[in-house]
Amino acid sequence: MTLTVAICTGGRDSLIHAIRSLANQSRPPDQLLIVDQSGQSKARRAVAEAGYPHSFIVVDQDAKGLSKARNEVVKQLTTDWVFFTDDDCVVSLDLVDQFHKVIGQYPEASFLAGTCIRPLDYDPVTQDVPGVYIGHQVEINARTAMLEAEFMGACLAFRKDLLNSVGLFDPYLGAGTEWPAGEECDYVFRAISKGFVGRATARMVVFHEYGARTRPADDTENGRIGNAVVMWKARQIGDPKLIAMADRICPYGPKKVLLSRLTLGHQYPVHLKMYRKCKAVFARLDREFSVKEDVLVKTSG
User: Fold this and answer.
1) For residue 301, what pLDDT is reported?
2) Count of alpha carbons within 13 angstroms of residue 94, beta-carbon side
3) pTM of the model
4) Fewer CB atoms < 10 Å away: N or C end of the chain?
């Protein structure tokens, strides 16, 4: 099995650290593919400065948005698998080797999700840093997705035949868009609804070492409103399994609002505000969008 490691970047300075961690792998990937949306050729300079010694491709892309960059990766892909990580992460130095061990053990898996560790100095009070810790190494399917098995896009691998079947990442979702979250959940849920299964594995590890950002004063401004879009899409597609999975990532909903009022009174205004934001997004999507081939299409506005 051949593997491409893909990084989509908007030009963060931390990209060089991601490249260095890949340059020093115990077993290098067959290809490093970087899609650069910086407009300043930052990725090419980072590759040169890191002294990356193996095969690589840099694609400059004028379009903005993480999903558009991932779609370019899929377009360029020539290997059997692609592993996505982010430009603010570093990967474990045996990541590629561990990837091959996992797919050898679980050949039925069409996608793999690993651990993404938050920075050592992460302060949950003042900072917001996404992370996932794989505690249960289980199959990811319609029953386990985002219940027993969580995942995030910084440590996620897909087999090429899955990508060909599922189609595009939704260009309206992900970093660099109005709804900067939920794109990986949207894609994995769609893959599962088409019959693919994955595997959660603690053997693949990345470190979200440079991902810390200041927690917004308004805790509803955390980008996760994108999850509400995933919920709306699932209902337009109409697959009951897809709807059930999407509901597991609801940013806030009626039950959480009620629970916070009963048990966590200080959180009640935050939950209620997010619930109202979700309702407003649903109304806007009803007015301005439809779903075609499982991605959003703007119809008016």
Assistant:
1) 74
2) 6
3) 0.94
4) C
